[in-house]
Amino acid sequence: MSPAIRIRPRRELRAVRRRRPHRCWGHLIAAPLWPMHGANLGTLLRTCDAVGACLAVPPFDWVDGALARGNTLRQPTCVHRVGNPVRWLSGERARGSRIMGVELAEEAIRLADLPAARQRTIVVLGHEADGIPVEALDVLDSVVEIPMVGTGLSLNVAVAGSLVLYKLAGLV
């Protein structure tokens, strides 16, 4: 016989979660710097809130609207605007951040083997069709691969980023 399942009431959930949004978590940053679809940015923003991460986005005109539509929490969130992605990543690496790409590559760490982040880590997510641009690959310290058994070659940015962020946050 299986144990009874107890659903936790909202009051109990709120008691164990943070009281108000934090301006900048800083430990984990999701960086979809070459986005294809605005809906993915909104979804990834929600995941960032859930795991205590920030989001770094390019300054495209449509990004702010996509984030506003996707922010279903309707609270301020931590979003960094990035002008030149490669220059920004290089600067973050020089300041001691670990730069990790989500990409299919030789020497990639399998998602299941990825340890929780112990230092400031930036998760670089490429364009859904083209991946991470070649000029940005040299900036990466490591690459994580999400194994797939289906016929697709990749997951969308929001799903891939969410999986990696939860693993790096130590929540799975």
Automatic annotation (TrEMBL):
InterPro entries for this protein: Alpha/beta_knot_MTases, rRNA_Methyltransferase, SpoU_MeTrfase, tRNA_m1G_MTases_N
Origin superkingdom: Bacteria
Gene Ontology biological process terms, A to Z: methylation
Domain tRNA/rRNA methyltransferase SpoU type span(s) in chain numbering: 37-166
UniProt entry keywords in alphabetical sequence: Methyltransferase, Transferase
Any single Pfam family the record assigns to this protein: SpoU_methylase
Single GO MF annotation: methyltransferase activity
PANTHER family cross-referenced by the UniProt entry: RRNA METHYLTRANSFERASE 3, RRNA METHYLTRANSFERASE 3, MITOCHONDRIAL
Protein name: TrmH family RNA methyltransferase
